[in-house]
């Protein structure tokens, strides 16, 4: 079977209808056997449909309303079932300049530049087909390879990294949390963990918890990430508040905290943080 006859499934996440239609048309011409099982317009829908339909390939627009393409990829990786089904191959659709594109190339995740050019898309299809063929022939480590790619992207200084604080300087030392008519000044050193909660962040200490009207993405650049470790897309924990990291038979890691009953799940993207010395 030649490459264009390789059967595969794909999902497209692109918020601009004309660009999505153009991408579909070009894919039909270049790869007739590719079955596009869904086309969505925002990151949350991409996550839902990817987990429900389990396509072999994802085309993710980097900039979409709400969740970005990279955040959607992270969510899919964290929630992907542990039943042996490989994570989808990832292709990002981006309008970024050469510097940004280098970040994706170094992370071994392919990209296509807007507006999509047939010759470049043909290269992407060839690359993805080679990956899928390797998986079909028993090539191992598909999930591990995809996780490694995402780790590199999440740790890069590419365009989707959190924006730097507007006022550079020392990390945040106090969280100002409104409780009724009062403003509580919570020392950051007392925080056990931060957890995303819709448009808020839960700030959990030994004594109590607070809700702060800020997103975790906005908060991250303001705290000391040498001391606070991200363990999930929605959770950041103070490293010296961790008592134990428990790994079950399936390889899932759960953290216990010093003096607190909460247990925190570590996503597979961040599980490598917890290894014996």
Describe the 3D structure.
By secondary structure, the chain is of the alpha/beta class. The protein is 29% helix and 30% strand. The chain has a five-stranded parallel β-sheet with strand order 2-1-3-4-5, with helices on both faces. Helix 2 runs parallel beside helix 3 and helix 3 (69-79) crosses helix 6. The model is unreliable at 157-167 (pLDDT under 50).
Number of strands: 15
Low-confidence stretches: 157-167
- What's the rounded overall pLDDT mean? 87
| Gross morphology | elongated
SSE order in H/E notation?
Answer: EHEHEHEHEHHEEEEEHEEEEE
Find the structural class using helix and strand composition.
alpha/beta
Helicity, as a percent range: 25-40%
Total helical elements: 7
Please give the order of strands in the largest beta sheet.
2-1-3-4-5
Largest sheet entry: 5 strands, parallel
Task: Please state roughly what percent of the residues sit in beta strands, choosing from under 5%, 5-15%, 15-25%, 25-35%, 35-45% or over 45%.
Answer: 25-35%
First-residue to last-residue Cα separation: 48 Å
Features:
single chain; 277 residues; alpha/beta; five-stranded parallel sheet; five-stranded antiparallel sheet; 7 helices
């Amino acid at each position: 079977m030649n490459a264009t006859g390789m059967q595969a499934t794909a999902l497209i996440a692109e918020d601009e209808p004309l660009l999505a239609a153009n991408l579909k048309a070009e894919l039909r011409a270049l790869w007739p056997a590719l079955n596009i099982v869904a086309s969505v317009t925002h990151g949350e829908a991409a996550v839902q449909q990817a987990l429900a339909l389990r396509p072999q390939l994802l085309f993710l627009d980097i900039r979409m309303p709400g969740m970005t393409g990279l955040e959607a990829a992270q969510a899919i990786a964290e929630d992907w079932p542990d039943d042996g089904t490989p994570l989808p191959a990832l292709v990002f659709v981006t309008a970024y300049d050469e510097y940004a594109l280098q970040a994706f190339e170094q992370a071994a995740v392919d990209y296509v530049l807007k507006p999509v050019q047939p010759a470049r898309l043909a290269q992407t299809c060839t690359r993805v087909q080679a990956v899928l063929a390797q998986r079909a022939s028993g090539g191992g480590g598909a999930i591990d390879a995809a996780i490694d790619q995402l780790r590199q992207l999440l740790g890069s200084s590419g365009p989707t990294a959190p924006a730097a604080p507007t006022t550079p300087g020392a990390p945040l030392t106090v969280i100002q949390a409104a409780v009724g008519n009062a403003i509580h000044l919570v020392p950051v050193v007392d925080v056990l963990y931060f957890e995303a909660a819709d448009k808020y962040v839960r700030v959990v200490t030994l004594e109590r918890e607070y809700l702060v009207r800020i997103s975790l993405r906005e908060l991250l650049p303001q705290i000391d990430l040498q001391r606070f470790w991200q363990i999930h897309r929605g959770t950041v924990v103070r490293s010296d508040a961790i008592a134990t990291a428990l790994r079950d038979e399936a390889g899932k890691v759960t953290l216990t905290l010093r003096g607190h009953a909460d247990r925190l799940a570590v996503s597979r993207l961040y599980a490598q943080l917890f290894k014996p010395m």
